[in-house]
Write a structure and sequence with these properties.
Elements lengths: L1 H23 L3 H10 L1 E5 L1 H13 L7 H8 L3 E6 L3 E7 L4 E7 L7 H12 L3 E5 L3 H8 L2 E13 L12 E5 L5 H11 L7 H10 L3 E6 L2 E10 L6 E8 L8 H15 L3 E7 L3 H9 L2 E12 L1
Helix pairs in contact: 1-2
């Protein structure tokens, strides 16, 4: 019985000493204690949600919603835990790092936590955007190769001279239009998948899907998606039928989505991949300018 009490006392003394080490962080030995205490526990978006809100507050531009909802939200979350929660990180299924956050009171040991996370979880690649400077910096400090993955755009031209061509009509999509929209997307844009039905359902529910018709044929779609984390921002999207491309229709649809976003009191943004030159040209013709980049970073 005495032995058990002694062990508990020793453990308590160790915890108190380790906590002081974490808070002071004045010597190499204290950092070693912190790393010994740290575990990387599998977690969830819900458990890390409060920290993620703080992470998003530090961004210098709105988060791209496809990145946020299509990639980050569905990835694998880990909490960095010792005597307290130090922060969290996010990995995709290929073990690429997507987010890394350290709580302000432990920011002085960020480098050690990052290195420990790499050693324990085994990631060798990171994706970081230029609008998340702290996370980007800690990745660049360890980079051996950096390439641009995607481009993020903000509006530079607040007004557009919109002239709807004769015969082109715009329709706000309802639930009754979903089958036609899905058929168009499959046959004329050649995009399909189980994700598309709930995605279109979400757009219809939020009044964010527009169909463009010539006579009875859908020739394009426009999308307005209000950001979940930056509520005054609208992420825009558009498609054009493969039978009607290179006629300026994409620029017109995107310009129209921009005008509708402003009518709703939202600032329009959009994005595209680095290899989609056609979309880049369309976006710039609609008055957008490239502000940020998503970088793919190979770590040393």
């Amino acid at each position: 019985m005495m032995l058990n009490v002694s062990c508990l006392l020793i453990l308590q003394v160790f915890k108190e000493t380790a906590k002081k080490c974490i808070l002071r962080l004045s010597t190499e030995a204290q950092l070693e204690v912190l790393m010994m205490m740290t575990t990387f526990k599998e977690s969830t978006l819900e458990e890390c949600g409060a920290m993620q809100i703080e992470y998003y507050k530090a961004l210098t531009a709105p988060l791209d919603d496809m990145w946020e909802l299509g990639i980050i939200a569905k990835a694998n979350y880990f909490k960095m835990v010792g005597d307290e929660v130090f922060g969290y990180l996010v990995l995709d299924d290929q073990k690429s790092l997507l987010q890394f956050y350290v709580c302000p009171e432990f920011i002085n040991c960020s480098s050690e936590l990052f290195n420990e996370a790499r050693m324990r979880l085994g990631f060798e690649k990171a994706y970081a955007c230029t609008y998340e400077p702290w996370y980007l910096s800690i990745c660049l400090d360890r980079a051996t190769q950096v390439t641009v993955n995607s481009i993020m755009y903000e509006d530079a031209l607040k007004e557009n001279q919109l002239v709807m061509p004769d015969g082109l009509s715009e329709v706000l999509a309802l639930s009754s239009d979903l089958d036609a929209a899905l058929t168009y997307t499959d046959q004329k844009v050649e995009i399909a998948g189980d994700w598309l039905i709930p995605y279109y359902d979400m757009l219809v529910d939020s009044k964010g899907l527009y169909l463009y018709y010539m006579q009875d044929e859908i020739v394009g779609t426009g999308e307005i998606r209000q950001s979940k984390t930056s509520h005054q921002t609208a992420n825009l999207g558009m498609t054009v039928s493969k039978d009607h491309r290179k006629k300026g229709l994409g620029t017109l649809i995107l310009s129209r989505m921009k005008a509708l976003a402003y009518e709703r009191g939202l600032a329009p943004v959009c994005s595209t991949s680095i290899d989609n030159v056609g979309s880049q040209n369309t976006i710039m013709k609609a008055g957008f300018t490239a502000r940020n980049r998503v970088l793919e970073i190979i770590l040393d």
